[in-house]
Write a structure and sequence with these properties.
The chain is an alpha/beta fold. The longest helix has 20 residues, at 6-25. The protein has two domains: 6-88, DNA polymerase, domain 1; 100-328, Rossmann fold. The chain is built from eleven helices and ten strands. Helices cover 43% and strands 19% of the residues. Helix 5 crosses helix 6 (131-138). It has an eight-stranded mixed β-sheet. A two-stranded antiparallel ribbon has the order 5-6. The structure holds S-adenosylmethionine. The site of S-adenosylmethionine has 20 residues, from helix 6 and strand 2.
Length: 334
């Protein structure tokens, strides 16, 4: 009898078949992972270039691990392990997935924010591999949900749509610069692990109120503005932001913009031990876009998270957050 967990079983399937495809097609591991995920989803081998002998080997592997027997979270975690393996060898520094513990925690916050809503639309404008977005969708159970993901990198978006297909999520993907016009209606919830840095397109940036008056604009500022623009009145934003957002040279402008458009519901600081130094530390910013029934909380939720591995301290924090949502959030059914 196998002693492997379901996640390990699936990971070995993705890994073994990606290695076979990588050798046969002479491509990178991540490209081969996207191909094998597509095969698993279609339940057939779609690459014409693969020899008959290799097709037989692959078919044997796929048949031994039927994807229908696995839950969404098992699929997401196994795929995530393969993505991490591929990214280790990738030369592209932007191939950075949101860490699992953070995705799970944001999923929990999303379920709290969306508690009383029935039909939910969710956008991730920097969807990457789809790990964060699908983790969040997996944590908002039994709701009618539609997702939207936008991403500039064409390999990442292929990995993302295969991730989403395997988990049978309804997500529309857009392979584009998300700071160009997005043809997506405002949503109930925007989630984003915001890309940090300078945006090289000054003409594009000039359309944003958070543009820099001098030189390139900060892409993280423009991403926040774009995210707010694509949120419905009364909708929520869960944004993974750098801690230095509030102390940078353009922090005043950012503060004014947020105060004008949103209510700050909370700020959850991730444990510093997760980051290589204090400068790269991040927090989860919880915003609600202003709207008719939106009220300022009596007290914003301000939390410093302990290490995720400290189970007792985490339990205490979750109890505190649960009780904050209970007291602060009026039931609203939209
Ligand atoms: N949450 C994602 C995941 O789970 O895989 C990872 C997000 S990663 C921190 C930021 C992503 O933003 C990268 O995938 C990067 O390619 C993308 N990105 C950066 N600038 C962008 C832009 N202007 N438009 C669209 N995507 C962009």
């Amino acid at each position: 009898m196998s002693t492997q967990s379901p996640v390990e079983n699936l990971f070995y399937l993705f890994d073994k078949t990606a290695n076979i495809i990588q050798q046969e097609l002479n491509c990178t591991y991540l490209e081969a992972l996207a191909e094998t995920a597509e095969n698993v989803f279609h339940q057939s081998i779609i690459q014409d270039e693969i020899s008959e002998m290799t097709k037989k080997r692959l078919e044997k592997e796929y048949q031994a691990v039927p994807i229908g027997h696995y839950s969404n979270e098992e699929i997401r975690k196994a795929y995530q392990l393969s993505l991490l393996k591929g990214m280790k060898h990738s030369t592209q520094s932007n191939h950075q997935m949101t860490p699992d513990a953070v995705s799970l925690f944001m999923g929990y916050l999303a379920s709290k924010c969306m508690d009383n809503r029935k039909n939910i639309s969710i956008l991730d404008p920097a969807v990457g591999t789809g790990n964060l977005l699908t983790s969040i969708m997996n944590h908002i159970p039994s709701k009618e949900m539609i997702g939207f993901g936008s991403e500039i990198d064409d390999l990442l978006i292929r990995l993302a749509y295969n991730n989403s297909n395997l988990q049978k999520h309804t997500i529309q993907f857009f392979n584009q610069d998300s700071l160009e016009p997005l043809y997506i209606d405002p949503v109930d919830l925007v989630v984003c692990d915001i890309p940090i840095g300078y945006y090289p397109n000054d003409i594009g940036a000039s359309k944003f109120s958070l543009k820099s008056n001098d030189g390139h604009s900060y892409s993280h500022h423009l991403f926040i503005e774009q995210s707010v623009k694509h949120t419905k009145a009364g909708g929520y934003l869960l944004l993974l932001i750098p801690n230095h957002l509030f102390t940078s040279d353009q922090a005043d402008k950012m503060h004014r913009f947020i105060k004008e458009q949103c209510i700050i519901q909370g700020l959850v600081q991730l444990p510093l031990s997760m980051f290589k130094d204090e400068k790269s530390a991040k927090s989860i910013f919880i915003l609600q876009k202003k709207g008719n029934e939106v009220t300022q909380p009596k007290q914003a939720l301000l939390v410093d998270l302990p290490k995720f591995s400290n189970k007792d301290a985490m339990r205490g924090i979750i109890a505190r957050i649960d009780s904050w949502f209970k007291t602060e959030k009026q039931p609203s059914t939209r």
